[in-house]
Write a structure and sequence with these properties.
This protein is α/β, with parallel strands linked by helices. About 45% of the residues lie in helices and about 20% in strands.
Length: about 160
């Protein structure tokens, strides 16, 4: 079965890292700096360069967990296309994204019982998460089955 890998904007993947790899869906995140809210990720109003530039200037960011409704809005169109999903999530150690994704998945599985949705807590963020996702995409490009890839990600996420 065909599947899509999904991850968070926190993976900080550059377009260069994604060249010649299968399509990746990226979940945007809301971040706040000095009382100003930004969307970090696809179609967002702040990119990694600006995000880190503001931090180097001494600004602090607060993040907001992606809510279950947002996950449903991102996952459901993929399910409607007949795709299964492997979601490699931002670490549960720093965010509630993982538990919120599981809430959304429990609702979506009722509506799409024929689809597989596997959520993996990456236990990492930023470059570590990005490298894990990029390697998963390479393995997907080599036709690794969804279940096998999910097992590989679980087994290698601490490496």
């Amino acid at each position: 079965m065909a599947y899509r890998i999904v991850t968070d904007a926190t993976a900080d993947l550059s377009m260069n890292m994604l060249e010649n790899l299968p399509t990746l869906t990226i979940v945007p995140m809301t971040v706040e700096c000095e009382g100003v809210s930004y969307t970090y990720g696809p179609s967002g109003d702040i990119d990694a360069k600006k995000f880190y530039e503001l931090q180097r200037q001494g600004n602090f960011f607060k993040t907001t967990s992606v809510n279950p409704r947002c996950y449903m809005e991102i996952f459901e169109p993929l399910l409607e296309l007949g795709l299964d999903i492997l979601y490699i999530c931002f670490t549960s150690g720093m965010s509630g994204c993982y538990s919120n994704a599981l809430l959304a998945v429990s609702q979506l599985k009722e509506k799409y019982p024929q689809r597989q949705i596997i959520v993996v807590d990456s236990l990492c963020a930023s470059v570590g998460e990005g490298f894990l996702v990029a390697e998963a995409l390479r393995m997907q490009a080599n036709n690794l089955m969804l279940e096998d890839l999910a097992l590989w990600v679980e087994s290698n996420k601490k490496n």
